[in-house]
């Protein structure tokens, strides 16, 4: 039996010389929804009014630059011959890991300049971040990219997928794994898990759990894709980065657990780091306490009293 598969138009608006792609619209929608949710959580946690809106400006710029540069670097053979295409981000070619690096750098610099706790801010943002990624993957769907290996139409129908998804996975005469959908669903599950566990986790552990969870899913899904950025002929860049992030996040988790007496996320208010307003202070109040307290601090004070210091 022959099926007619008509793909969706990746262009949302054609304004003559200017084409607005669904890819850019969907990415922007994911970012805006994520920042809206993070800003609401920031208000509940007693953060300075409008702080996340200020932070959003820098994170959006740095994450877009990072996502594009990451992709361009690993596709340099093409872009070195077509340099004008480097700025054509509306047509796709963004790497999530590059966006994470750029956004994290912007957030870290912002927190250092303002005197805020980076881990406190990151914990608030983590669920919004993975939700934005879940939405953003649908931009790949519209571009018919980031898909897996070839499959049959019968396989896609066995997954009980809507007809429009099956049709969109028909590319150049063959059907392909909708890996964009696998990752989007994985991220939606992660969003729910982070929201559920965040009040019970200690400061800094929500963002670390996000890195571990997302990287684990990305590692396996990346192995199904046919358009992976590569290091040499064997290593998939995203899989290497995912392993490194899992190891790094786990190491930081253990190190912070051993070194500090960390408060629970849900038990603290405010956003200032060590030496500023208390991460453990009540809303509207300040006290000279940092985000974390070294476990041996009180023990050392007792020793000092005994020695008459």
Anisotropy-based shape = globular
Indicate the mean pLDDT. Answer: 86
Tell me the number of helical segments per DSSP (H or I, 4 or more residues long).
11
Strand content: 5-15%
Provide the low-confidence segments as ranges. 275-294, 305-309
Terminal Cα span: 89 Å
- Which structural class is indicated by helix and strand composition? mainly alpha
How many strand elements? 9
Sheet with most strands: strand arrangement: 3-5-4
Work out the radius of gyration: 22 Å
Biased composition (Basic residues): 284-309
Function: Catalyzes the transfer of the diacylglyceryl group from phosphatidylglycerol to the sulfhydryl group of the N-terminal cysteine of a prolipoprotein, the first step in the formation of mature lipoproteins.
EC number: 2.5.1.145
Enzyme class: transferase
Account of the protein in words:
- Its EC number is 2.5.1.145.
- Pfam families: LGT (PF01790).
- Keywords: Cell membrane, Membrane, Transferase, Transmembrane, Transmembrane helix.
- The chain crosses the membrane at residues 20-38, 50-74, 94-111, 179-197, 203-221, 233-255.
- Belongs to the Lgt family.
- There is one protein chain.
- With 309 residues, the chain is mainly α.
- It has one domain (11-306).
- The protein has helices spanning 22-44, 51-73, 76-79, 96-114, 118-143, 153-158, 163-168, 179-197, 205-222, 237-259, 297-306, and strands at residues 11-15, 18-21, 150-151, 170-171, 174-176, 230-231, 235-236, 260-261, 293-294.
- The chain has a three-stranded antiparallel β-sheet. A two-stranded antiparallel ribbon has the order 1-2. A two-stranded antiparallel ribbon has the order 6-7.
- A hairpin with a 3-residue loop joins strand 6 (230-231) and strand 7 (235-236).
- It is globular and about 60 Å long.
- The model is unreliable at 275-294 and 305-309 (pLDDT under 50).
